[in-house]
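Protocol check, entry for the methods section draft. Step 1: assemble the input record (protein sequence plus ligand SMILES). Step 2: submit for complex structure prediction. Step 3: store the structure tokens unaltered in the notebook. Ligand used here: pyridoxal-5'-phosphate. Step 1 record:
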Amino acid sequence: MTTEEQNVRVAEAEHLLQVYNRIPVVFTHGDGSYLYDINGRRYLDFVSGLGVASLGHAHPGLAAALAGQARALLHTSNLYFHPLQGQVGRRLTELSGLARAFFCNSGTEAVEGCLKFARRYWYSQGNPRTRFVALERSFHGRTLGALSTTWEPSYRAPFAPPLPEVTFVSPTDPEALDEATGTDVAAIILEPIQGEGGVWPLSPEFAAAVTVACSRSGALLIADEVQCGLGRTGTPFYSDHLDLKPDLMALGKALGAGVPIGAILMSQAVADTVAPGDHGTTYGGNLLSCRAALVFLDALEHGGLERVQEAGARLEKGLRHLADRYPVITDVRGTGLMQGLDMTETVAGQVVEAALAGGLLVNRAAGHVIRMLPPFTVSDTEVDEALQTLDQVLSKLR
Ligand SMILES: Cc1ncc(COP(=O)(O)O)c(C=O)c1O
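Step 3, stored output:
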């Protein structure tokens, strides 16, 4: 380890809350799909900051737009108008078919807002409903409301009690969903593709059961598209693919291409129940984050979705080919540029480590799934390079 690396690690060890088990590499800069560490070593980045660096790293258009915005104006708070929130709101509502947008700073805040607005909706019907139905294997974030609808018990236990009115059902059990969704349920919350839980797309049958349960009980539907949304699967939203009609949608990650921004999209019926002062944020939707979102949305509309479809199909085909050759891979799941390879936890740990040594970044979801969330701008050659590295890694495991 170089002295520079050592200094970074010592400073963190001495001064930071020790809440992350960091992988021992210090990144200093990036270029497209590649990251460079403090020693100048290059890595192909198929993690993209957990699905955030949607335009890759050091994107020239984004860098120029952000520098220009920084010279003009970064932040004014939500006390005043600025020209960009309405523009991003228009683009997102057009893309989703939902009526209105609220901006925040992260995925968990977007989920938190969705939960609040769902309760707000029922409160104004004069029939307060407080219960939520969530899914086993879900991950919705770390703030208390989002955490309460997150399945992994070890995430919730140290912060108990969570919101008491959450019922978890299996995402493969439509009958349990039906049973849990009574007329006291404010909303069903789900990820159309469960990301942190191990890259599990919901089945069309389960999605159909969600629609039936919502229409029978009146419960609202919250789609958490923080990880799978905004083009990552080759469609603007995976809810569309499943024919789901959410009343509320949580967005984050890819939207700011690296600048923190989250968004809540909602139907007019929900929006009509929210009054000025009900919710708010200091930073949410400031000029910097909205500028980033506009650059991202432009890129998505100008060839971005097509690139995800092409690169995603190439990646999936290559991964399936690897699964045919290496029995340690027990399943390949995902769509577009959200892909997972299921294996045992021990093997998955070895693969992440060996891939890193081979210059490829992938990470583990749910311990036993190698997850890939490359930038939307990834090239065919880069996809092939990742597949080749994985091939080498897997061949040495045998
Ligand atoms: C589906 C989903 N929802 C919510 C979140 C929380 O987002 P954030 O970490 O930006 O708060 C995540 C983060 O991984 C996520 O995958």
